[in-house]
Amino acid sequence: MAKKKIGxxxxxxxxxxxxxxxxxxxxxxxxxFGLTQAAVSQRIGNLEAWLGRTLFIREARGVSLTVxxxxxxxxxxxxxxxxxxxTEDLFGTSPKELRVAGLxxxxxxxxxxxxxxxxxxxxxxxxxxxxxxxxxxLDEERTWLQIRFxxxxxxxxxxxxxxxxxxxxxxxxxxxxxxxxxxxxxERPGWRNWASSAGVKELPSARVSFDSMGHAIAAARQGMxxxxxxxxxxxxxxxSGQLFRLxxxxxxxxxxxxxxxxxxxxxxxxxxxxxxxxxxxxxG
Length: 284
Known about the structure:
The protein is built from ten helices and eleven strands. By secondary structure, the chain is α/β, with parallel strands linked by helices.
């Protein structure tokens, strides 16, 4: 196929080529754009004639990219994404809605307290939350912006630290060391880890055990004993005086609370600015 033209092909042809290459066929690209398969085939044929190169191998069972098509596809994808980002930055309006998913205890402790500050910074914003019952459910959650607990290393996701996890003995007013312990089961270090780090040889007995830090903190707030509580998650309670930190060593961990999103999801400067404001509010 002889090369006939030099320069930039029509954008419509490039968008159809990108869809066909990404989706693996002309029929799928036709469905995405609401076109007929013949219309998609014509646009790609026009693009091939413009470039003077064959981009797809046509066979009875379908189409596949040629070597030149495989080389051209990522270049077209990067260019279209850059054009979309820059158009949004120059002419788009600021996002009006922010939707975040996380465990109920994380939304309660990290998102709710920051709302007045966030809405002051973003007066037209509408915030929506989606609660999940278990951490593992976040991998299947459709809401792309998420609060997660861990070390910040989730494949395919970018992460920004909200707060490091620090554990400290805490209790309601009037409850002192020697009262029953409140256990919290899970990935976090527990009372034995704390005792080893603090050099405490004997621990009081534990009478209740929870699989949720939020529940363990709530039990301590009700005066049921001493909890090895999360400083970030208990911050509202310690500020209000419902809980107080005992005069005992704290235990630092390698985990933290993170705001995360798919690597390819935050495309425009305005989206990123909104996320930065959200982070600032939660960190504050």
